[in-house]
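USER: Note each token:
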Amino acid sequence: MSTLPLVSWLLSSTEPALRWRTRRELLDLPDSDPLVAADRAALPDAPTARALLAGMRPDGTWQVRHYRTKEWIGADVRYADFSTTHFVLSYLAELGLDRSHPAVTLAAERYLALQRDDGDWADAGSHYTHFSCLLGQNLRTFTRLGYRADPHIQRALDLLLATERPDGGYLCDMHEGRYATRAVKSCIRGSVKVLLALAELPETWSHPRASRLVDYFLERGGIYRRGTRTLVNRDMAATYFPTTWRANIWEVLYALSVMGYGADERLADAWMELDKHRAADGAYILDWTPAKPWAAGVRGQPNEWVTLYALLAKKYAGKLDKAEQICQVG
């Protein structure tokens, strides 16, 4: 299947967020386009968005029992389950909702108020202060929700850009100093989430810290252990949606492509690795998604979300060949 039929497939989705984002991000249609406007208006009442919002408590939280302690979590920022507040807000942002929705505003502003003075979010009962994957995830989420100008987001961004590590990546502070005789390497999961966040913020791309993070990925071919063609971890062997704490191959290629590095020759093998996840018709397979109502499709089947992000990555990298150029369609 060529790209254009894939675009038609995305535009026929029952999920208005997929249609809306395909038209806006892949086809570059303006907000004034009637079909873009119609899809935008349908976002809050879409089944997935309604199911997620139905799980919100009156105080603006999503809470679940901790898998180990069995206590209820979600009222704070503990980072243990994909169905707690930060991850649900992240998924709602993917679905196109933003602060114009009253429920999103309630949940988002309550969560933002939990930020620590240094700009991070962490378990109030823990001595740990920096969780790089959570910080990156939150920065991307709240930027997409329309909070870029909020002081909480600027503090989070200032912290990210001021955080240095010898290899250029990011790491949760619980792992620092683990070894007595050697330095701890950065965490690929945290580094990917920060990379995704910076991809949403073009004003950061010329910052030296952003450049060092880009180099961290390019020097390892995006998804490999440095100096090898061995995948950096098992996450990179699969595709996931929505984003959680895992590192995702499409996340790396999408973020680097948005930032202008997708055509770098050091990523050639990573692009081939991504295409191993294509079905016979050209669509991309979803390997993992949570259970309903967070499910974004059927595991092991062609998936609209993974396909959209793969096509967006290729678009920004200039990797859609002449036979696959995306035309503007209504």
